[in-house]
Amino acid sequence: MSELPEYILDRIFHAPREMVWRAWTDPELLHRWYGPGAETIIHKFDLKPGGIWLNEMKWGSNSHFQKVVFQEVIQPEKMVWHHHSSTDSNWNDAPNPMMADWPKLLLTTVIFEDMGDKTNVRLSQVPMDATDAEVAFFADAMANMDKGWGSGYAIMDELFVELQAKGGSDE
Amino acid sequence: MEQVGYIDSKSNLDAVFAALADPTRRAILSRLTEGEASVNEIAAPFEMSQPAVSRHLKVLEKAGLIERDKDEQRRPARLKAQKLSDVVDWLSEFKAFWGTSFDQLDNVLLKMKQAEKGTEHE
């Protein structure tokens, strides 16, 4: 088995580790920041190995459901969870409506590194129990992000301007 | 040469971006927005040989940006731009997900700090 592609995001927060941990683990605080521009509703949050977090994100009339199953919880240093990236409203795994080859399950590790009055948070996600197509898709996505989406977007923009000028795609 | 079968399987994003990096291929895609076209029809405005156009079409086909009929003699090429647009939308959402969430977390932490200071002063 070759090495699996990994998404890593490091971010320093200007707050002590205990406080950052609290913002991640108190549902009252978590729902205020998790999910970009969405109304986040936490239906269940049971922070312990085997416990689950049921999360709904609402954009207008659309809802996206995710299920997290915690594997490891070491306060205030580390948590590991299985991230079910797309479920139906009954929290059963459902195919991603947009991307058939997006990994259904991501092993997610969050490490909180104490830096005094600051905290470095390292988030990493690796496909789990993934098909070859899912692994390949995720690897490509990560590679293109690392290379800088910027150039990719510039090309896309140019192409879409041309497409729109011609009256749109025929699909 | 294995070409058939690639097209509708996994989206190879590297191939997509490599395919789009060439101005001639973008011009071919642009031409295909007007509707399907054969190699002859595509080659005409480009002052390019048919084999050269065929090579470009192969790159586009392998990247999943166009499809071509397999049986017909003409083998007209058709655009599949929607798929590309879907992929880019999804990836930008994924990238924005954590980035934007973390920006929001900054704000939550700031308010937590302010609240803590507030109680200390009381």
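Residues 81-122 of chain B form one domain.
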